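Memo to structure team: turn this sequence into structure tokens by end of day. - J.P.
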Amino acid sequence: MNKSQVRRYVGYFIIIALAVGVISLSAGILFRRDAYNRTIGILDRANTVTWNILTSTEYDTIDDYINRIAVDDVRITIIRSDGIVVADSQADISKLDNHADRPELLSALNGVPGRSKRFSDSLGENLVYVAMPLVDLSNGSYVIRSAMSVQDIDKALGEILGRIAFTGIITFLALSMLSFLSERRIIAPLADIQKAAEAFSGGNLDYFLSIPGPEDVRVVAETLNDMAEALKYRLNEITKGKNELAAVFSSMMEAVVVLDESLSIRHINRSALKIMELPESDVYGRSLIETFMNSDLQSLAEETLASQSPVERDITFNGDRNLILHAHGTRIPPADDKTTGNAIVLVMNDITRTQHLENMRRDFVANVSHELKTPITNVKGYLETLADGVMDDPETAKRFLAISIRNADRLNAILDDLLSLSRLEQQGGEGLEFEIRPLDDIIGGAFQYCTLKSSDKGIDMRFEGEKNLLASVNTLLMEQALNNLIDNAVKYSNEGAVVTVHIEKNGGMADISVIDEGIGIPAKDLPRIFERFYRVDKARSRELGGTGLGLAIVKHIAIVHRGSVKVNSELGRGSTFTISVPLQ
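Reply from structure team:
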């Protein structure tokens, strides 16, 4: 038996007990009232009989006569109009005081039958008194009063109440049993229905309700089971659709944020969290400006909320990453005609890389145009000068031709580097021959290539680190990458400096570092140092004969070897370029 049933049973018992108690109490009150009324009727009749006897019978003294004719349980008293008791069937009249102040006597003297219930000092018990109005006897006017003991009435009433109590207990037990049977047949099925409804409301739609009770209750149970099946089917369909939408929402590459009318975040997908590097648990319910810290995005959301058509613009997030997002805002009106409840959907595409690539493309076009145009212009200018008559001066003509040849060589070097870079990008290592070689041998070959330039500047070339580290490499390409790095180190180092090539094992990789003591690279230029034609100091780079493509070629050579290249530099203290390639 569960708590609910216990509470119901206790309630039933209390109701039944109260009902039986009220009925018993009412019956007792009625019986008591009836008993008193019957007692008063008996005393009235006793007074009448006594008056009839006294008026029709000869007697010597009233007191003796009253004692002879009186019934044991009825006390008869004859009282003179002045309150003197002249006869009493149960008390010694000599010991009785004047009764002139008795309430029943006062009523009787006024011609109205007197009635009262009070304690009798002469008999020492409670009595019910009934006084007959003043009557004339042979020797004067008297009040005839009869009385009965209340104890007798209470005794009789007690017996009656005992029977009522016994009947009440029997009734209580019978009604309790009937209530229990009703609970089992009617209330219990309703409790099962309640339990099923609680299970359904709690989400347990697999709960099956089986009631073998009355037909009407069984129909309700079957209806609930059918409702649960229908709800289960619909919930499954809704959950399926919701999961599909959630999967689409979560897997979208675009950042999506749903805002309510107060511009607080209601939903946000993973892409938005990833782009903004936000923890998912901290954003829901927060305002847009508090979460994204961007006034332009806040302005876009406010404009979208007030607009009937979509709003879009590019939003820049300044900071460590300098994000550029193309934001598209759409207002979603409420489903009904309410003026509140609007929502906003912001869809943002990260176009930072696209913009960066576009900038690189423009820079590349501008740089390659400039790099090619300069030697072509020089060659054309000197040739035109020669054609205009400088040929007559052999020394000048020879000098102009030498300059033209150097510019042609520079133009050829740029084209060769562009072709090399193009092949590396297009092939991605396909078609190249790789062989397992010690990396220190390749470093030695690069040293020999750069010896002449380093000797001219008095630069000390050093090799440090582990030997016989084997890697699968394309020897020509790897030597070209190291040549470019060492050549740059020599170019940008002062005379008498030291250039060190250091190699060490780093997990499954070999790190080859070219370390110089040159002019260094400003921190702002480090992120772009491997771009095509990017130069930190354009004038000095051209003066030293670089094409601007060397570091870009180094980067792609590292990539085709499944490795990488990085740079660490401090302005005025030198740079360290490191190529990492997998060990065999």
